[in-house]
Amino acid sequence: MPQPYNHAVITDAGISLLNKAQAGQCAIQFTRMAAGNGVYEPEEKTASALQKRTGLKSEKNSYPLSSVGLMPGGGVKLTALITNQDPATGEVLVNEGYYINEIGLFAKEKGGNGSIEVLYSITTAVEDGDYMPPYNGGNPVQIGQEYHASVSRDVEVFVQYSGAVMLADGDASNTTVMFQQAAERADIQSGDTLAEAFGKLSKYLADITYGSMSGASENKTGAAGLVPAPEAGAQDKFLCGDGTWKHTPVSSGPKGDAGASAGFGPPTATIDANVGIPSVTVTSSGSDTEKIFNFSFKNLKGDKGEDGKNAAVISVAAQLTEGWSGSQAPYTQTIAASGVTEASTVVIDVDSTATAEQLDAYINAKIIDGGQTADSITLKAFGDKPTVAVPIKILIIGD
After folding, report:
1. In the Cβ-directed half-sphere of 129, how many Cα atoms lie within 13 Å?
2. How many angstroms separate the Cα of 37 from the Cα of each of 53, 65, 86, 91, 199?
């Protein structure tokens, strides 16, 4: 778990830089955060002792700053990613593990001599600090380190972000960029700090002005610019090349000659009395103003059919005995039926004199016509073989 650290102490060099900034002679640019494993005796951890320090006792690693934010009660909160492997280059930063017993914040004058960097503030661990292990080739150890530094509200503060990366938790929502608008327009260069880049961008945006569009005429070319605002009620108008909103005129060609009126006369139709394949022939006559169509139908009369006659129906009473042939369904039985021919249509049903037992036997036998010859009919039973005689009636239809 994270180890506690003592309150940060601003050094004499940091106080000197802060006084100069408060006098308006410079702005403060925080440059980096450094971690070390120096061991401090209790008397060396006092504010008066730490105030005189110009560097860490045993600096191990230096890290660029990732963000800066203003503190509600005064001062700034700076963050850096403390890690044992550079996430951008893959360089191994820690070969031998150590306890982070001291952390220093470094700063310089903004725009001043780049080599003059001072230990602005220092903090020490209450006991042993967080352990930074050596990089073992797997996942790197990453600590999002916050550092609170004392700064007056009226002092301009900048951060040197070169080489910085997003914090390990990926949250950059509270990152604050502090900058002043550049005095003159200049291109953003590789190596500019975010503050310098935003200052140049702010100047560029402030200098941008927009003129109004000027329309073209027959002898003058127009100029690009802001489109003139349409007035209320001009929602159906179009912006024309002269820079005004207009209803564009609709052009049309010359009027053509008047065409002749079309008309129809009364249609006619004829039907012949011939027999054959039906057909119709359509012909027209007359002028375009009185066109007449004639429909000629042919062969609509059909051939006369032969005289028909009612089919003869003969009713024959018969008796199905209990003597059915066959050992398994379908069982067969042939009975005499006078008047039946091979071409006859035969309808078989139980006679009205049948008893309930005979009716059940007929139904359960599932009897159908099994074919006929002259004066005889063969019946088939696909169900149970009847064990009683059953009276039936036979209707013989047709020849």
Report:
1. 22
2. 15, 20, 19, 21, 38
How many distinct helices (H) and strands (E) make up the chain?
4, 21
pTM tops 0.85: no
Q: Are 366 and 356 in contact (CB under 8 A)?
A: no
* Beta carbons of 80 and 165 less than 8 angstroms apart: no
Residue found by looking up tokens 């005429």 in the block? 217
Each residue of 149-199: pLDDT tens digit?
Answer: 888 877 878 787 776 665 544 444 455 555 678 889 999 987 676 778 888
DSSP of 181-243, one letter per residue? --SS-----TT--HHHHHHHHHHHHHH---PBPB---SS---B--BPPPPPTT-TT-EE-TTS
Asked if omega into 249 is within 30° of 0 (cis), the reply is no
- Tokens standing for residue 199: 């200052």
At position 33, the amino acid (one-letter code) is M
pLDDT value for 168: 42
Cβ-count burial 105-142 (b if 16+ within 10 Å, e if not): bbbbbbeeeeeebbbbbbbbbeeebbebeebeeeebbb
Asked if 310 and 366 touch (Cβ cutoff 8 Å), the reply is no
